Amino acid sequence: MTQSHLPEQMTAVFLEAYSGASGLQTGQRPVPQPGPKEVLVKVAASAINPSDLSFLQGRYGFKKPLPTIPGFEGSGTVVAVGKATGLMGRFLLGKRVACVTQQTGDGLWAEYTAVSLNYALPLLGAVGLEQGAMSVVNPLTAVALIELAQKAGHKTVLNTAGASALGLMLHRLGQQEGVEVVNIVRRAEQVAQLQQQGMRHVLNSSSATFDEALRDLCHQQKIRLAFDAIAGDMPGQLLAAMPNHSRVTVYGGLSQQAVKIDPTGLIFQDKSVNGFWLTPWVGQKNMLQSVLMWRRAQTLLLSALKTEVRARYPLAQAQQAVADYEATMSGGKVLLVMGE
Ligand SMILES: NC(=O)c1ccc[n+]([C@@H]2O[C@H](COP(=O)([O-])OP(=O)(O)OC[C@H]3O[C@@H](n4cnc5c(N)ncnc54)[C@H](OP(=O)(O)O)[C@@H]3O)[C@@H](O)[C@H]2O)c1
Q: How far, in Å, from the CA of 49 to the mean position of ligand 1?
């Protein structure tokens, strides 16, 4: 079922080698047909996230056969639906949606993409397509991490890469939910920026007194949970600073380094490390929980879960867009925009 006449060809970005931005080429290919239980989305915008950078370098949790179209998260309008999409397909036709792509098939850095019916999430009227393009990965991760903290009874938690889009969301959502987030950044100007946004405790990991200041704070405030986006030495530093019976949950690998930890704390102080990935966390929710969570996240997209946009590029400049984002990750997202 098609809403309107579709072109035969489209512009798309292809990853031809797992070598980062240099492996990208923009070209033409036929507009895909939605398969069974899929919808065809005319893509409006797609965010570049750290997970995309990892994927382009072949360092994500999975690889796809090349060439492939990258892009895990975006938004657009449903313009056709495949077989076996039933009532839901009819409901979605013509609707604006946020969408995410998965382990198989192509991604969202294209004018059109076919996505599973389950991964086309209708947007509320108040949510624009640009916010919609950044509405799943980080917002739901913020919801998940704050929920993990609450369920385990933590009133204060640490978070690294604190000037990231997700770090800002964690702070604002935590304020609403009664969980204080102590954000850790790596540059002095980020400390000032975050303090201006109302954060009481911001620590600079590049400061000579970082380890001591972190240890004092963790012991004064009895902080026993840390969320880490960096890996490398950072989880070990966090664990060393926190009291006995503490945990670090690693959710990102921005340093591109393996986690290094002194085993003493693990053995003698009941300290531990685990990982977090949004995909299985969402998969554990039942249908009703997922619908309610998506609705709530959307109502917060213009406040606690808002993302700033720093730059916009057309598909033809995908290489520059990725290079720009890699060079400056703080201060807002870089979007690929295809138009509505
Ligand atoms: N596990 C999951 O399911 C999941 C889901 C969502 C997000 N994430 C992770 O969450 C993290 C934040 O994502 P985002 O989209 O919010 O990022 P973002 O807005 O692009 O910001 C990235 C931040 O990381 C900082 N950074 C980059 N490399 C760093 C390093 N080696 N050491 C310290 N800081 C570094 C940057 O600071 P500078 O300005 O100083 O470079 C920037 O503030 C990423 O690791 C991402 O993979 C994980």
A: 8
Give dist(CA 107, CA 117) in Å, integer.
Answer: 15
Does 217 score more than 60 pLDDT?
yes
**Domain topology for 137-279:** Rossmann fold (3.40.50)
Mutating to test ligand 1, I would choose from 190, 193, 329 the residue with most ligand atoms within 8 A of its C-beta, which is: 329
What are the residue boundaries of the structural domains of the chain, listed by start? 9-134+307-337, 137-279
Query: Which pTM does this prediction carry?
Result: 0.97
CA of 249 from ligand 1 middle (Å) equals 14
Q: Whose CA is nearest to atom 6 of ligand 1?
A: 138
Rounded to the nearest 10 degrees, how much is the dihedral formed by the CA atoms of 292, 296, 301, 303?
Answer: -170
The CB density around residue 251, as the number of other CB atoms within 10 Å, is 21
pLDDT beyond 80 at 2: no
Ligand 1, atom 31: closest residue by C-alpha: 255
